[in-house]
Amino acid sequence: MDPLFLAEKVSTIIQIVTLIVLVVLSSRLIGKGKLILPTFFFTFSIVSVLLSDLYWITFEVMRPGERMPIAANEISECAFYLLLSASVASLKINCEKLYLKEVIPALIILVCNAALWIVWSGEWLEDIFSCIVMGVLFSTVVRRVKQTNLLPVYGWCLFYGVGALAIVLQTITIIKGGQIGKITDISTYFLIIPMCIWFDILTLRGIIKKRKNTFLLSIMGVMWAYLSLYMSPGYVYYAVLLLVNFGWVLMYLSLKNMHGEVYRDDLR
Amino acid sequence: MIYAENILICIAFPLIVTLLFLRKSARRFVSCFVIGMVVCLISAYINGFIDMLIKMPTTDTAIFISPMIEEIMKILPLLFYFLIFTPKEKDMLIAAIGIGAGFATFENCCYILTSGADKLPYVMIRGLAVGVMHIVCTIFVSAGLMILRRFKTVSIAGMIGALALSMTFHALYNLLVSEQGITSYIGYALPLLSAAILYIPYKRYLEEA
Lengths: 268, 209
What we know:
- The structure holds 2 protein chains of 2 kinds.
- By secondary structure, chain A is an all-alpha fold.
- Chain A has one domain.
- In chain A, about 85% of the residues lie in helices and about 0% in strands.
- Chain B has one domain.
- Chain B has 7 helices and no strands.
- In chain B, α5 runs antiparallel to α6 and α5 packs across α7.
- Chain B starts with a helix and ends with a helix.
- At the A-B interface, α2 and α3 of A face α3 and α6 of B.
């Protein structure tokens, strides 16, 4: 059996099992009656990804090697981003400042990223649509992280610096190609994946120390993982997919942690 | 070639006349049934137009494009009813089931007129699988919308989420039945199984209400 085919099936099955477990666990959290809205939207978003994955794996089994045109699973992916942003937006945070100075650069990075997707894949309609829904999530999360002061100044510098550098490197990869292109392409992974792991570590630390709103940091980690997922071919794609899975688990754990915070606040 | 508009007129007119003699839930169901049939016809027009535009093979259009178009078309009257009339949950369910049943019935009529009704297995599949699938999808959407309202959070994200749920379910069914063999059997069983699963919370909901 082709090892790439095996890697693809194994990673997708791991993903589906993880998602089913998360759907069951997070729907039980809704029943606890605290933070209903964020948990409800989170569960709903995970259900969307689960359905999208089921569709994708069925397609791969029935039509192996065939390129999928725009299909319903992409609508599910878009729903995932929108529902996750609704989950973030429904968190009760005292500060309501817009923080446009932080949001606009993040959106510029995302638009440049979408332009590179279009050049790479040629599917402009799907890429523009994905960019819009990812932009909704990006702006909501960045604003919420700023409102809660979860990231220190150097964290923001890293966030924008790595984003901008990744765009430059990927542009060189597309324009130059060849040996230089390979080097810049690999360098991008060395920038983005550590960034994703860094956010995962921050989330884990937040969960262990029972810090408030670590859920937002876990979403930041998943967003970076998604950005690297969309630019990855072959084995790298399936390795990054595992990172995305880990990010989902962290999202659930941090949300559960926030439930604990609410309970403690109620007891005081 | 069949004249779908004529078939619609033939089926819808008696139903429209019955509306004069019906009241409350029965009237709501029949009007939604007629709306479901109209929506099915419009979806067929749009599917045909897109088919011509992008020149995709017919099977691929059925797998990739039809579920999106049909589910968007079914959610539109449901959303209109939900947002403008803010109905009770029971009424919303009746409307959803009516639209789904109307859509499925009209689609089945057209297919049977095109392919013939001489093969019982084919007729059974059309009735029990495709027919039930449309009803299950509209119940999914209406349940999603009702949950959103219960949590006081009717938002675009939530609506798109509910739509995506029904769309992917529909697309999964179409994909599974697109080829003969074990996958098609799974596909045919999927709507009935989902309907059976949906019946459990629905029964509990009725008991609570």
